[in-house]
């Protein structure tokens, strides 16, 4: 499996709470829902739909999983919702228990097992393992060199601080730009893959 991480991201690298006002206020973040004015159904929606269509499984952190588990089951009957609901979902959490996993096809991955479990999944044949949101999780996978493709939906806004997916460890990690398309809202959907050192 290939690990593909998809992120709504501001120009200053913030990925926190793009969807809803109260989604994630940790650290006093006050801009929840900031991505909405920059999202369009053709380019941004198309990139999201395409990533979900090619994914074999989903990997997310607890907070992202809880937000999705509240929304997608209620939308059953829509093609995208049915795809999200039926695919295998791995949730990384140290606080959820088996009885909390009410969203069908969810598998619990304890935080301490994350790197080993993703390493095992990457060694198997199959489609993509799609990571959505989950800033801390993506940061860990990037630091471990375990993200094969990075889809950044860069939106023309500065948020002045918040959570980032990028490791701040001083390590150089070259990427290759595979494709880029700009929405009428100014959002650039850029797909990157890991590149060899020069």
Note down, in words, how this protein is organized:
The chain is α/β, with parallel strands linked by helices. The chain has helices at 43-54, 62-71, 79-86, 114-122, 135-143; strands at residues 2-10, 55-61, 88-92, 106-109, 128-132, 149-155, 175-182, 188-194. Strands 4-3-2-5-1-6-8-7 form an 8-stranded mixed β-sheet, sandwiched between helices. The longest helix is centred in the first third of the chain and has 12 residues, at 43-54. The chain is globular. The mean pLDDT is 95.
Fold blueprint:
Elements (H helix, E strand, L loop, with lengths): L1 E9 L32 H12 E7 H10 L7 H8 L1 E5 L13 E4 L4 H9 L5 E5 L2 H9 L5 E7 L19 E8 L5 E7 L4
Parallel strand pairs: 1-5, 1-6, 2-3, 2-5, 3-4
Antiparallel strand pairs: 6-8, 7-8
Question: How is the biggest beta sheet arranged?
Answer: 8 strands, mixed
Order of helices and strands: EHEHHEEHEHEEE
* Secondary structure: helix percent: 10-25%
Question: So what's the overall shape?
Answer: globular
The helix/strand class is alpha/beta
Termini gap: 26 Å
The spatial strand order of the largest sheet comes to 4-3-2-5-1-6-8-7
Q: Strand content of the residues, in percent?
A: 25-35%
How many β-strand stretches? Answer: 8
Structural descriptors:
eight-stranded mixed beta sheet, single chain, alpha/beta, 198 residues
């Amino acid at each position: 499996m290939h690990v593909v991480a998809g992120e709504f991201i501001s120009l200053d690298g913030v990925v926190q709470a793009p969807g809803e006002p109260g989604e994630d206020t940790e650290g006093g973040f006050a801009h929840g829902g900031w991505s909405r004015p920059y999202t369009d159904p053709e380019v941004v929606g198309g990139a999201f739909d395409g990533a979900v269509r090619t994914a074999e499984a989903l990997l997310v952190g607890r907070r992202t999983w809880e937000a999705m588990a509240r929304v997608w089951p209620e939308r059953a009957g829509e093609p995208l919702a049915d795809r999200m609901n039926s695919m295998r979902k791995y949730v990384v959490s140290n606080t959820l228990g088996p009885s909390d996993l009410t969203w069908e096809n969810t598998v619990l991955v304890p935080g301490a097992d994350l790197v080993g479990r993703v390493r095992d999944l990457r060694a198997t044949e199959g489609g993509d393992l799609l990571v959505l949101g989950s800033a801390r999780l993506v940061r860990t996978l990037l630091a471990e060199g375990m993200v094969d493709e990075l889809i950044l939906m860069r939106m023309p806004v500065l948020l002045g601080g918040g959570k980032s997916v990028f490791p701040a460890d001083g390590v150089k990690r070259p990427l290759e730009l595979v494709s880029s398309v700009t929405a009428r809202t100014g959002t650039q959907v850029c797909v990157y893959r890991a590149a060899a050192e020069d």
